Each structure stands twice: as structure tokens, then as C-alpha cells.
Here is the input.
Amino acid sequence: MERKPFIAGNWKMNMTAASGAKLIDELKPLVKDADCDVALCVPAILIPAMAEAAKGSNIAIGAQNMHWEAKGAFTGEISADMLKEYGVKYVIIGHSERRQYFGETDETVNKRTKAVLAAGMTPIMCIGETLSEREGGITEDVLSRQLEKDLEGVEDVTKVVIAYEPVWAIGTGRTATDEQAQETIAFIRKKIGELFCPKCAEKVIIQYGGSMNAGNCKGLMAQPDIDGGLIGGASLKCDFAKIVNFDK
Ligand code: PGA
Here is the structure.
């Protein structure tokens, strides 16, 4: 299996420059021998200070959103060049909170994803079904639609990280079972194979996200199609290192 596991934190709208730098200082020695790729996706304003704090370590810094245009009259938005100036490697795109509260659509997720790729960074593109969609038995339809629309026109899907985040598991303490997560992520991989090619699908890193923590990460990471995690709440403390070291 050539896919390298990838554990990424999503700080959301948490931390300050001071508390963030302190946490990164504490994490650095704890994650330095990780066998996986490690990233922290931090609020845009904290990127310069967190990039400085993480310097020389194996913690990459990521952003939580990016606009598709290079520059211009887009108040409140952040461009690729602004992120790249600080060495940002990853950008979360289409998080369900952006979709739910900030009008993100499959169309804008698609534009942002392609812009991140064109800028030479890696999008962590989030997809996932709501509770009513899962209970209504339409999980696969929802994920298929998201994958079709969000990845439309993407040339090399192997450069995209997919985060499967069931909306009902985010920040709720309710995790998908290992089997549920495996089954759904295997479906996502199969669908990517149909949309692109089966060989590419085998290379795509697919993370699970939704209340992943130090206690449940081993079981989830043991699943054959789960290549990593996108971690919200548990990335705000040193416990994040336990997830990064899930295999130790
Ligand atoms: P959570 O968030 O780990 O706090 O559930 C995950 C995410 O939304 O990326």
C-alpha cells in the first residue's frame, strides 16, 4: 500500500497567536517521529505566527479556506499568493460548516479546489452527508453528487485529499463506527475510480473526520481504506500527538 497516512488538525475559529504557538511548541517533540504526514489548518490570521512556530518541524501549516480568484474586490477573502508566501501546503475546502453557515456550494467548492491545485497546494476537500440524508438512505447519492460536482474538471485527482466527514459526527462526540466509516470511504474510492480511473483512486488519500480522537483513532486507522483523519476538537490539545502516533 503506497498511500502515506495523513493526520491533519482543523483548529476552526479557535486559538490565538500566543496559545497556538504554545501548543505547537508542545506538539513538536511529541510528533517528530511520526510515520504519517502531519498538518495543522489554522485561522488565516494566525498563519504567519504558526508557520514561524512550526519552522524546522514536521508539522505543515494549512489554511481553512481560499478564494479562487488571484486578487481583487473580494472583501474578507484570502488568495493563493497570500497563503503561499508563508509556506502553506494544505487548504481545507468545502468544510460542512462553510457549506451550512456560509453559503458554500458544490460550484464554489469546485472553483476553490481547482484554484488550490493550480497554485501548487493540496486541497483537503470535505464531503459528507447529514443525519437526515443518512437516515433517509441517500448517503451514497449525496456523496456521488458532491464528488461529481466538486471534482469536475480536476485533471489529477491524486493531488486532492478527500475528507469524508459525516455532518452528524462533527463536533457531536458521535463517531461513525469503524465499519460505517470504512464502508463509506470504500464507496468514495470506488466512485473516484469511476469518475477518473481505478488506479488513480487507489492513490487518493481519503481521511475520516468527525469526533476522531485519541481513543477511537486506532480502530478507524486500521481500516483498509481510511488513510488519515481531519481532527477538530482533539487538535486543540496535546492529545493530537496521540492521534498522529496512532501506530505506535
Ligand atoms: P471534530 O471536527 O473532530 O471536532 O468533530 C472535525 C472537523 O469538522 O473537521
Residues 6-244 form a domain with the TIM Barrel fold (CATH 3.20.20.70). Residues 10, 165, 170-171, 209-212, 230-234 surround 2-phosphoglycolic acid (CB under 6 Å). The longest strand covers residues 122-127.
